[in-house]
Amino acid sequence: MFNRNVPASQWTVITILAAALFVASVFRLSRRDAPPAPPAPAPVIVSVQGEVVQPGVYALPPDSATVETAIRAAGGVRGDGDARSLELMGRRLRPGGQLCVVRQAHGGIQLTLERMDARSLLALGHKLDVNTATEEELALIPAMKKDVAAAIVSRRQQIPWNSLDDLKGIPGVGGKTVEKWRDYLEIKGED
């Protein structure tokens, strides 16, 4: 079967090739069994508005999502304004936040932090809190009728909502409807 007249140098090459194929096979098999790498953290999506060079919505790295990075992403403060000395510059931003940069009459800069409007939050896949959303915001939810939105707000004025399942207590709202709303609504602190 084997030709005994094969020179030793060729046997050496064959042996090295076989060893390399063996190592490559073992390496490839070991990579299949390795657990997948954890997903990268999602960027922090924020809106920067007002006296900045390029107002808009920005995706910031989660480890450095601060007021200062957001202002830099928006091209800095427009004109001769310098917000670097303001105390909020190091404050971390949450997803769905909105930073407003306003020039004061005396020339100073004021920063305010708030939530994006409900339409933007929903477009970005964020949920609205049943205990804080207005009737108009709740009416943006698919299959949410205005009278149901009014009932949600009216009820929470007496007793805050503790669970989305409690919404089934509103006339005309059943389990299937609540399940559809879970993609759009939340109660802060609910598990």
Helix and strand arrangement:
Elements: H1 8-33, E1 44-50, E2 56-60, H2 67-73, E3 97-103, E4 109-115, H3 118-123, E5 128-129, H4 135-138, H5 146-158, H6 175-181, E6 185-186
For this entry, give a set of tags.
two-stranded parallel sheet, alpha/beta, 6 helices, DNA polymerase, domain 1, 4-stranded mixed sheet, 191 residues
Task: Compute the separation of the termini in Å.
Answer: 70 Å
Report the C-alpha radius of gyration, rounded: 29 Å
- Give the biggest beta sheet: 4 strands, mixed
Taking strands numbered 1, 2, ... along the chain, how are they ordered across the largest sheet?
2-1-3-4
Helix content range: 25-40%
Could you describe the 3D structure shown?
The protein is α/β, with parallel strands linked by helices and about 190 residues long. It has 2 domains: about 45-120; about 125-185, Photosystem II 12 kDa extrinsic protein (DNA polymerase, domain 1, Orthogonal Bundle). The protein has helices spanning about 10-35, 65-75, 120-125, 135-140, 145-160, 175-180, and strands at about 45-50, 55-60, 95-105, 110-115, 130, 185. The strands form 2 sheets. It has a 4-stranded mixed β-sheet with strand order 2-1-3-4, covered by helices on one side. The chain has a two-stranded parallel ribbon with strand order 5-6. Strand 3 and strand 4 (about 110-115) form a beta hairpin. The longest helix has 26 residues, at about 10-35. The protein is flat and about 95 Å long. The model has no long low-confidence stretch (mean pLDDT about 85).
